[in-house]
Design a protein that fits this description.
The chain is an all-alpha fold and 160 residues long. The protein has one domain (8-159). It has two helices and no strands. Helix 1 (3-98) runs antiparallel to helix 2. The N and C termini lie far apart (96 Å).
Length: 160
């Protein structure tokens, strides 16, 4: 055999054995690093899952608290609205019963009791319409005020 070929074959075997030994040593080292990284990843994943579960429980608790506060605020709102309506109705009934209209009755000696410098019936109709509109606006404003106060109380209860 040619000594040059033998020399290259021996060099090849030497390189292959060095490469194999290096692969074995480094492969074991990389395997240990991989297992360590896998353990750290599994621990991280478990920690994130636990934090997510805790956050979900906290969010559910906050949602229940918010819902309960909203229900209480709605109940208080209904109570105030109903109470206001009853009081307003009673006051209007008392006021309507106390007077017969916006104009006092004509004197008995009046030649034309249906006139007071203008048509009494038309005046009372117009006055009644005005009162009805003003009362409607007042009722709307009262309802809006009650709703706003209820909303403010609800938000305040959430901050506590």
């Amino acid at each position: 055999m040619n000594p040059l070929v033998v020399k290259w074959v021996l060099i090849g075997l030497l390189l292959a054995s060095c490469f194999g030994a290096g692969w074995k040593v480094n492969g074991d080292r990389w395997e240990g690093k991989y297992q360590k990284l896998q353990a750290e990843y599994d621990q991280f994943k478990g920690g994130v899952a636990a934090l997510g579960e805790a956050a979900k429980l906290a969010a559910d608790k906050e949602a229940r608290r918010t819902k309960l506060a909203k229900e209480k605020a709605d109940e208080a709102n209904r109570y105030v609205h109903d109470n206001n309506l009853a009081v307003i109705e009673r006051l209007r009934r008392d006021a309507d019963g106390a007077r017969s209209g916006g104009v006092p009755p004509a004197p008995a000696a009046s030649g034309r009791p249906d006139l007071v410098c203008f048509d009494r019936t038309e005046y009372q109709r117009a006055y009644g319409g005005l009162v009805k509109e003003v009362r409607g606006l007042a009722d709307e404003g009262t309802a809006a005020t009650v709703d706003l106060d209820t909303g403010k109380a609800w938000i305040k209860s959430l901050k506590e």
